[in-house]
Amino acid sequence: MNEQSYRGTARHDHDFDAGNPLAERRTRAVVILTAFTMVIELVAGWWYGSMALLADGWHMSSHVIALGLSVAAYAYARRLRGDARFAFGTWKIEVLGGYTSALLLVGVVLVMGYECVTRLLHPAAIAYDQALVVAVLGLFVNLLSAWLLAGAAHGRAHEHDHGHDHGHGHDHDHGQHDLNLRSAYVHVAADAATSLLAIGALAGGKYLQLAWLDAGVGLVGSAVVALWAASLLRSTGRLLLDAEMDAPVVAQIRRALRESPVPVELEDLHVWRVGKGKYACILSVTAGDPATPEYFRSLLRAHRELVHVTVEVNRPAVA
After folding, report:
1. Could you report the per-residue pLDDT of 130-187, keeping only the tens digit for each?
2. Pick from 195, 221, 240: which residue ends a domain?
3. What residues make up the domain containing 277?
4. Which contiguous run of DSSP H or E holds residue 309?
5. Where does 49-127 have alpha helices with state H?
6. Which helix (H) or strand (E) holds 249?
7. Are residues 182 and 285 in the same domain?
8. For residue 249, how many other CB atoms are within 10 A of its CB?
9. Structural contact between residues 3 and 287, judged by C-beta atoms closer than 8 angstroms
10. What are the tens digits of pLDDT across the range 6-31?
């Protein structure tokens, strides 16, 4: 008897993520705050002849662009949410926004490093009193912005916790975090870190006559920002490339098949993410009666993160 194959799919429902309107509103507010502070730093740097403030102002301008990209990603994903061309929804637009934002952060690191090395080789006079006031203002704005974005992330996590029944006892994947929101937070945190370092460097220059601190601490800040950018590139890049076969849900699928009362041989398995904490799955198995596609979907139904399951059941060849 020839091998028989039975195929079945789960119900097609591609509205896997309703978006994050709180994050969008708060990111927009952060863009406005950051742009306002950027203008103040640029004007103050020019007026007081402070290269440190001018550099920080231009550094902040790149973050305004990156944060603006985050807002645009939210808006674009929301506008296209019902577009049938997107087989699994538009959530990856937000991931792409985070990835692009991380690339801009790498550019910021390179510019910061170049400016710091230049300043070490060619020191410039700094109006310490005025620069310190503006740097403290910048730190305050960055901390306020970080608080706004952290609040949006907490609200999203709270909503996620109450939107799922955790009574099944299996480990939900914690990678569902909004990477577009995370990229915005990383930019703001980078600004806060550089502002804090700038305050320390300016204070050291003013009270200890250590003028080199301004550029030296800037290099340290650049290294910290580079680490954050690399982490964000890794997390967004693996999502864009569907590198998900080491996700916990994959091991859970394999374990469920091994523990099946009906003997089954797994032929092929593909798992990829289609939303924040939501996965699609294609599996091909060889199993005898009474195993059907619906039987295997019932085995995996306890894993609520699997929202789209396609099953192919092949019958063992009979001599």
Report:
1. 778 888 888 888 888 888 777 665 544 444 444 444 444 343 433 345 666 777 777 7
2. 240
3. 5-12+246-314
4. strand 306-314
5. 51-79, 91-121
6. helix 248-258
7. no
8. 22
9. no
10. 566 554 455 555 556 777 787 788 88
